[in-house]
Amino acid sequence: MARLAVNYYSQVLGMDRMMQVILPELSDHMPAWTAADLQDIPVLYLLHGMSGDQDVWSRRTSIERLVRQTPIAIVMPSTDLAWYTNTTYGMAYLDALLDELPKKVATLFPQISQKREKNFVAGLSMGGYGAFKMAFSNDQFSYAASLSGALMGDPNFPNRTTWQNDAYWEGIFGDMSQVLGSKNDVITLAKQQVASQKHLPKLYAWIGEQDYLYQNNLTTLPQIAALGYDLTFETSPGTHDWYYWDKQIERVLEWLPIAYQPEERLA
Known about the structure:
Layout: E1 2-10, E2 15-23, E3 43-47, H1 56-60, H2 63-66, E4 73-77, H3 93-108, E5 119-124, H4 126-137, E6 143-147, H5 166-173, H6 186-196, E7 202-208, H7 214-225, E8 231-236, H8 242-255
Parallel strand pairs: 3-4, 3-5, 5-6, 6-7, 7-8
Antiparallel strand pairs: 1-2, 2-4
Protein name: Esterase family protein
Pfam family, one: Esterase
Organism: Leuconostoc holzapfelii
């Protein structure tokens, strides 16, 4: 596998951006892939949480090792602290990631598939919200996974002032009392997708039972499932911590429709 740090210019945001890319390649140290095996390869867009960036998944999990034997690309972008949202202060982060980034990936890495059935998105915490938001916003992704997602699908969302001040939240979303039912509410987006699209993404969610977002997930996810989504929702002991996300990202890889082959299962 190759791991690439890619600098590119975002026309949407008007500034330079970075993404990390894990890309399968032909090598004596890799499985007996042919050039044909590495064409039209599936891709997982892997999203970070509030304290992270495009490098954090590579630094704090085993993602590169986990996919070493599997022909899948991993694209890890950054949204800074913008919650995968077109902010009220005029920065269209959602458009940059949802529309512009896949086109940039297609230009730079033509071997990565653009087919819906081979495009997936997953994230943790803020990135779990982002993964569902992106999957509900258009027909690009066939699978979406949220790990410890801050899904904001209920009026009792945890006290935001413990993370940032009110001015920060209003800069992202505007009037926070109006978020539910808006374009930034995952349940509203899911309802709109059900009404407008024939194909719905398959969903996976995990939350630790000691996570402060546990009740948020228990409230939000059944509402999404009731709309007709194929949702796999799992819980287990755990807190809001990389120890658990490192374990759960492998569960996501097992769930995706790819030929996932961890090293320890090789003959």
